[in-house]
Design a protein that fits this description.
about 240 residues; alpha/beta; Glucose Oxidase, domain 1; eight-stranded mixed sheet; 7 helices; 12 strands; about 35% helix
Amino acid sequence: MSTAPHPVMSEALARKLRSVDTPTICNALELAMGGRSAQGFTRGTLVAAPQPMAPMLGFARTACIRAAQPSTRPAADMRQLRLDYYRHVAPVNGVPTLVVMQDLDEHPGVGSFWGEVNSAVHEGLGVAGVLTNGSVRDLGDLSPRFSILAGSIGPSHAFVHVERIGEPVEVFGLRVAHDDLIHADRHGAVLIAPQYLQALPECIDRVQRKEAPLLAAARGPGFNLAKIEAAMREADDIH
């Protein structure tokens, strides 16, 4: 588990990042990095619950589960591991946390860790949300302010249990370590490297300024190819 200090993130910066969707964060990161990338974000279609889902932001608290077979650990050890897990994910000193949970089963989602109870427990602890390749259930009874991005929907918890906590995980092609900063919404999740964090507000504003000319032209009267060309020239002039 990493013991590196958190990058400095004021409440104003956190609000700015939560005010936009994850595609905008991806675009802003491209400006901060000086080019495009095909890594650092999830791939595929995820289940977003509940709806509508607000963008979530937090430092990763990683964990692994299994559900297809019962655990071989004694019941007392399993109870202690679950308590250790809750202690692991709970925010400390106001630092926002986001669970990234890998289902290790051959067919992830056989049993759901995420439903009415755990959404309420994690919301009560102050966790921002969860990204998991496992399943979610109890769709009508989930805590409305706890965001869940899951791989599937299922009816049962089967033999779901925590296997380990704090180790690197991989979910939908995204490798995540403890304390990585994650931004996520219904589109998926992206990792924000510390060296780009402070540049993101200005890059977000620049993304929105560069998109504005073409959007205004496309939504205005008399839109045609000439207006596309003019709007593209205007966007290129925004640095």
